[in-house]
Specification:
13-stranded mixed sheet; about 55% strand
C-alpha cells in the first residue's frame, strides 16, 4: 500500500461503483470502481481499484488500474500494482518496480492543457506553447509500447534506485 499518512476529502470504497464524471477540488481516494472521467486536484487510486475513464489532476498516486488517459500537471506516481492503459502527459513521472504503462508517455516541462471534444473521452491533448521569445520546451516523448519496470538500478550500477 501507500507509505505515510494522507488526508482525503472523499473516498470511494472498495465495494462501490461510481458511474459518471467526477469533479472535486480536494484529494480523493478510490478503492472501488469509477466509470467516467475524473477531474480533481489530487487523487490516490488504491490497489485493486479500477478507473474506466480519463483522469486530469495535479498529483496522482496510482496503485490500481486505469483504462484511459492521465494528465498530471505536477506529479504522476505509478506504484508497484499500478497499471495504466492509455496515454500519459505528466510534468514528473515516477514508476515503481512492477508498475505498468501501455500507451504514449509525454513529459513536458510546462503545464498541460486538455481539450475535451466529447464528454466520454479526451480526443486531443496539447501543451501550451511558451511565448515566441522563449526557448522551445524540453520534451521527452515515447511512442506506444508496453513499459513494465522490473528492476531499478542507480546510475553507478549498484543496487536498487
Amino acid at each position: 500500500m501507500f507509505k505515510g499518512k494522507r488526508q482525503y476529502a472523499s473516498i470511494i470504497g472498495r465495494d462501490t461503483t461510481f458511474t459518471g464524471n467526477l469533479f472535486h477540488k480536494g484529494h480523493i481516494r478510490v478503492d472501488g470502481r469509477v466509470v467516467g472521467d475524473i477531474d480533481v486536484e489530487k487523487i490516490t487510486i488504491g490497489e485493486g481499484a479500477l478507473i474506466e475513464g480519463n483522469i486530469r489532476t495535479a498529483v496522482a498516486f496510482i496503485d490500481g488500474s486505469v483504462r484511459g488517459n492521465v494528465i498530471a500537471r505536477e506529479l504522476l506516481k505509478i506504484e508497484c500494482h499500478g497499471d495504466i492503459t492509455g496515454d500519459i502527459i505528466a510534468i514528473s513521472l515516477g514508476v515503481d518496480e512492477g508498475g505498468c504503462i501501455r500507451g504514449c508517455v509525454s513529459m513536458k516541462m510546462e503545464s498541460a492543457e486538455v481539450i475535451h471534444l466529447t464528454d466520454e473521452r479526451i480526443q486531443e491533448s496539447r501543451v501550451r506553447d511558451r511565448p515566441a521569445a522563449a526557448a522551445e520546451p524540453q520534451s521527452r516523448e515515447f511512442r506506444p509500447a508496453e513499459i513494465r519496470l522490473k528492476e531499478v538500478r542507480r546510475a553507478d550500477g549498484s543496487g536498487r534506485g
